[in-house]
Amino acid sequence: MTRKSKSPRWFKKVRGSYLPNSWQGWLLYIPYAAYVICVVLYAYINQWNLGTSLFVIVPNWVAALAIMSWLADRTSR
After folding, report:
1. Does 50 fall in a domain?
2. What residue numbers bound the domain in which 31 lies?
3. How far apart are alpha carbons 48 and 22 in whole angstroms?
4. Domain count, the chain
5. Does residue 21 contact residue 12 with C-beta atoms inside 8 Å?
6. Are 56 and 43 in contact (CB under 8 A)?
7. What confidence tens digit (pLDDT) does each residue in 2-60 have?
C-alpha cells in the first residue's frame, strides 16, 4: 500500500502568477502582502504628492514582486 505524500510545492502557478499551496507558501506570502500594504500606508501617512508617492511605492513594489516571484518559482518546482 503506497501512501500519497503531500505536495512538496509551496506555490502553484496560476495564470502567470503564483498562489500559496502549502503552509510554507503562506508563511512567505503573508509578510510579502503586509510589506506591500505598509509601503502604501507609509506614503499615505506622509501625505506626499502623487509623484513622490509613486517614486516611493513603485520601486518597493517592483523589488518585492521580483523577490517573491523568484522565491515562488524556486519553491514550486
Report:
1. yes
2. 19-75
3. 38
4. 1
5. yes
6. yes
7. 555 566 799 999 998 899 999 999 999 999 999 999 999 999 999 889 999 999 999 99
State how far the Cα of 21 lies from the Cα of 43, in Å rounded to an integer: 32
Is residue 25 classed as helix, strand or coil in its secondary structure? helix
Domain-embedded: residue 13: no
**Residue 58 belongs to some domain of the structure:** yes
Q: Is 40 part of a structural domain of the chain?
A: yes
Looking at residue 7, its pLDDT comes to 61
Output the pLDDT for position 76.
86
CA dihedral for 16, 38, 60, 51, sign (positive or negative): positive
Cross-strand bridge partners of residue 14: 17
Side-chain-side CA neighbours of 35 within 13 Å: the count stands at 15
